[in-house]
C-alpha cells in the first residue's frame, strides 16, 4: 500500500512561532493608505471646491443646476437662489443644487 500513499517523515518539532503583530498590521495600514489617496482625499477635494463655488455665487453669474438647467442668477439668498431660465421664467433653486458656474455669454451662445 506504500505505493499509493507517501510515507510521512517524522520531523523534529521546534518551538511554535507566534505570528508577528507587524505582519498582520502592515496590510491593514496599506489598505487604509490606498483608500485615503484613491477615494477619500479626492472626494474631500471635490467637496471643498463645491463649497467654495456655492459661497462665491453672485447676481449675474450664469450657472448650470444639478438637473441640467442653464440660467442666470437674479437673486441670492442664504439657502436659495433665483435663476432666470428665459424671459419671464424664473425658478428658485437650493444653493447646493448649483453644479457649475459657466463663463458669461454661455446662455447667448447656446440659444
UniProtKB/TrEMBL annotation:
The chain crosses the membrane at residues 20-40. The keyword Transmembrane helix applies. Keywords: Cell membrane, Membrane, Protein transport, Translocation, Transmembrane, Transmembrane helix, Transport. It is found in: Cell membrane. It is a single-pass membrane protein. The keyword Transcription does not apply. One of its GO terms (biological process) is protein transport. It comes from the Bacteria. Belongs to the YajC family. This is Sec translocon accessory complex subunit YajC. It comes from Wenzhouxiangella limi.
